[in-house]
Amino acid sequence: MDYFAAVRAFVHAAERESFSKTALELGVKTSTVSRYVSELEKDLGIALFNRSTRGLVLTEGGRVFREHALIALQALDDARELTSSLNQTPQGALRITLPVAFGHRHVVPHLPSFMQRYPEIGVDLVVTDETLNMIEGGIDVAVRIGALPDSLLMARRLAPHRRIVCASPAYFERHGTPSQPGDIAHHESLRLALQPDDKWFFTRRANPLAAPEQALVELKGRFRGDDSDAVLQLALAGCGLALLPTWLAATALRDGRLIPALGDWEARTGRAEPAIWAVYPPKKIVSSKVRAFVDFLAEVIGEPPYWDDGLAL
Predict the structure, then answer these.
(1) d(Cα 259, Cα 170) in Å, to the nearest integer?
(2) Record keywords: 4Fe-4S included (predicted)?
(3) How far apart are the C-alpha atoms of 133 and 125, rounded to whole Å?
């Protein structure tokens, strides 16, 4: 049995839910696809599909095998691509996923420069706040924000993810400015639904030789939304306090439309230290197109990140 040909046939059949459609796509006979799958099932000692008149449905074993087969096939494709492209410029289709607010502000504006620098790379962009399965979605690289969960994915830290408690001048004139984290409990807070819970965590290291002070604040407020831009707009309109990332609020902070508070405290939405990451599937050798994009993004963002210029952090 040609094992890789059989695995490719199985993966295509799992996607198409049909041996005949797979055969047409691969340019082989339907009986050949059926034989490949039968030989795989015999080798593995488990059924990969439940067969019915309506089509093919993966068994539990089939789902597990498909997940790992996709990684193996991608590794083989990458090996072929890397070997054939030695001493050549990065090329091929690059599928990228970005979070909405960050992507529109700090990645999409730089894509023309990236595409000009690498004319043989085509960009397939998916902008969403949903955390996509990179293997199943055929994603080459993702930009993600926060604390990364344990996973098999590879990651490169692009920048810190700093947040600042802030509000409009009009809000502070009406309600006063909090002088310590506990004061926030008496303020109207603009809550982000993407946070794990309605709490903000504060840390301050007043003495470098002593353990840092910590505070946990329960939030209250009439607004809760799943969009960072919506929180920013309500903060600018004087509707409450917001805990906004500097990459989102820097312009409004610099021009005075937002005023920072509790500047000697570091504020987070969780206990883990967040960051901005480039994430990509695990491979022994990172493809040249992925490396080119990640290096380009790190270069554009800089250290410290360009959006923090002029902010007192």
Answers:
(1) 10
(2) no
(3) 15
Whose tokens are 């509790």? That residue is 262
Helix/strand/coil for 10: helix
For the domain spanning 3-84, the CATH number is 1.10.10.10
Taking the domain 163-268, which CATH number applies? 3.40.190.290
Cβ of 144: how many Cβ atoms within 10 Å? 20
Q: How many CA atoms lie within 13 A of 7 on its CB side?
A: 16
- The distance in angstroms from the start CA to the end CA of the chain is 62
| pLDDT tens readout for residues 166-197 | 999 999 999 999 999 999 989 999 998 866 67
Q: What is the pLDDT of residues 266-291, one digit of tens each?
A: 888 877 778 999 999 877 567 889 99
Distances (CA, A) of 279 to 99, 109, 133, 290, 298: 12, 20, 12, 10, 13
Show the DSSP H helices in 27-141 as ranges: 30-44, 60-84, 100-106, 111-117
* d(C-alpha 82, C-alpha 154), whole Å: 18
